[in-house]
Write a structure and sequence with these properties.
With 789 residues, the protein is α+β, with helices and mostly antiparallel strands. It folds into 3 domains: 197 residues, Sandwich (Immunoglobulin-like), CATH 2.60.40; 365 residues, TIM Barrel, CATH 3.20.20.80; 121 residues, Golgi alpha-mannosidase II (Immunoglobulin-like, Sandwich), CATH 2.60.40.1180. It is 21% helix and 19% strand. It has an 8-stranded parallel β-barrel. Strands 26-27-28-33-30-31 form a 6-stranded antiparallel β-sheet. Helix 12 packs across helix 13 and helix 16 runs parallel beside helix 17. The protein is elongated and about 90 Å long.
Length: 789
Amino acid sequence: MSSAAEQETRAAQRETRDGTPARPDGTPARPSATAVGHPAGHRPTAVAPRRDRSPAPAAGPAVLPGSPEPLGARPCRGPDGAWGTNFALWAGGAEAVELCLFDDDGHELRRPLTELTHEVWHGFVPGVLPGRRYGYRVHGRWDPWTGARWNPAKLLLDPYARAVDGDFALPAEVYGHVRDWPQQHVADTVRDDRDSAPYVPKGVVVGDDTADGAPDEWTEDRRPKTPWAESVIYELHVRGFTMRHPGVPPELRGTYAGLAHPAAIEHLTRLGVTAVELLPVHQFAHEDHLLRRGLRNYWGYNSIGYFAPHAGYAAGGTRGQQVGEFRRMVRALHAAGIEVILDVVYNHTAEANELGPTLSLRGVDNRGYYRLQQDPRRYADFTGCGNTLNVLQPHVLRLITDSLRYWVTEMGVDGFRFDLASALARAAHGVDMLSPFLAVVAQDPVLRRVKLIAEPWDVGSGGYQVGAFPPLWVEWNDRYRDAVRDFWRGALPDARDLGYRLTGSSDLYERGGRRPYASVNFITAHDGFTLRDLVSYERKHNEANGEGNRDGSPDNRAWNCGAEGETDDPGIRALRRRQLRNLLATLLLSTGVPMLVAGDELGRTQGGNNNAYCQDNETGWLDWSLLEDPGWRALTELTARLIRLRRAHPVLRRPAFFSGLARPPEGLRDLAWFTPHGTEMTESDWYAPTTALGAYLSGRELPQRDPHGAPVTDDSFLALLHAGPRPVTFTLPGRPWARGYELLLDTAREEQGAPPGTLLAAGAPIELPERSVLLLRALTSVDLRQKTE
């Protein structure tokens, strides 16, 4: 980027005689206001005010030079020892920057930041203390044809604001262009000079000790530090998890404090999950098209403040109190042994495309923060949300990594799930696993030590990158989701893909030294059907979203078990509950990192809505009354028992891939696959259609050692999966695999409170119930003798 003086010189050189910015060919950059007419009451100006046209400073404290580091608003002592706040904003192409301070009555005091160091505008204001609200007005050229969209009439949120007070209502005044200009094809080129300050939230100055006593250093011994191989992730929504929870006080429901409440944490510990993955908690805005329909963005994938906890989830106030409340929530979860992973959206912002509002980055430096097309009036969109952050720009990269480090070191979180991570891995000519973002994270001494989860795709060409991310990263494995769904609905053509997915997806992750836990296995996620809806609906029912049921994916890979939606048919209801048990057992017995979605263990339904991003209501919230139903309570108990079983047996959470090689002296393999005839599967068996197969997992000589260096051994297990509509005879493998078997799990049974404990003879045929999972422990001669004595 060039200096402010160079920007001003070039602006002057490119103006036409009438003062309108010119295109490269010298023609006017846009129709003038008089050429196309304008709505009464607000005539757009042709160019942004020049620096000498800035408002005269009002009476108030003088702005001292301050420091360009750190960025943001940071309380500190001034040169005379008195407290104040240092403000620093990167705005490389700007001509001038005004700091706007607001008192409790909303009165605005503007102070120019006159110091410019390496494209950072900065100043120290004595007497400005934590809790003070502020924003910026940034001056520069208005020339959308070159990507320049400065508009000082728009109050901008500091990209480094650590708290936000207020909400985004998105009236026409918050748009940098005249949103309702009659000629919509040029509307984005006509500047709107109305003041947006009354309609937008403000940043809040936050001290290091805001609402929370002395600074918390988050020493490492406070973190659970659960190894990847032992992790069980639980995806939840801060608001939706507690809004209907009867054990959480009403005033705390839907907040950080509500999630920290013992009643909420008790459910998590009873299940046995090791980490919560929170849907976005960065400050976000609601889209205009939702507000017009009386809806709101519920999920939060519309970020606008990467350092600020979303104010709408705070119970104790929004003038910095949300920071302390979030920290206390993290501490409470850590005390329960639960890690906190944030779902983060650094690929785009809430400012959308050229027709979107001007809230922050667009008004600070549009060309610096966003990827633009060859026609710089337009945005490159690899996210489907209108814009894409330009992570090739050093200060954008710094914004993201500063934000990540802040949430780790000062807010205490344990990792991140990166929404549309391929967009962050894009270099100049496509997705590149040596891209600046991935390289910076790999060498960062803070970030390389936390959990890093990629959603390994975006909507651009070449964006699907499942299996391609480098070591340190794990990935959402949608191929696991698809294979397991297809198997249990009877749509899998053969067993090959299922075999890979159940055992860690070595075909995707074994290269480059990665481990089975590089695969985050999931069957459902926040987007798509809930687990109950997956077995109750085959078609999406998103009418409540107000988009004519056009939104949401039509590819659900779902089977409704014979009726669309809820039914009173007892046979269908029983089959659905059995399918739920099958899906949960498959997920929690698979090698890799399982991810559950909050409420799936309760039988939560969204009524067939597979895109409930705007359903901030009972459709999106957990219904805790389901636990009063014995059938759904049994499903919760089964989920907890499967997690306990997984925790107790390292063979079910291997940190290394299976080899499949026979080992002396008996020729046992660490992994063997069996047909219903009791014989090992051959090459041709893998290519043949099948509904039933068995997987033998050997606990002998696991490829790991305990902390003292001793070899780790475990029981061996035989898992039988049958997705067919009728029972089949399955001959259990005999010697050398086992001398007998003990039945631990049978999903055909409604009651799952305790293992059946049935003993079965090795080499003998059993009847495998239709649509069921059986888990059997392989018994040695000693085991069998003890069981029969």
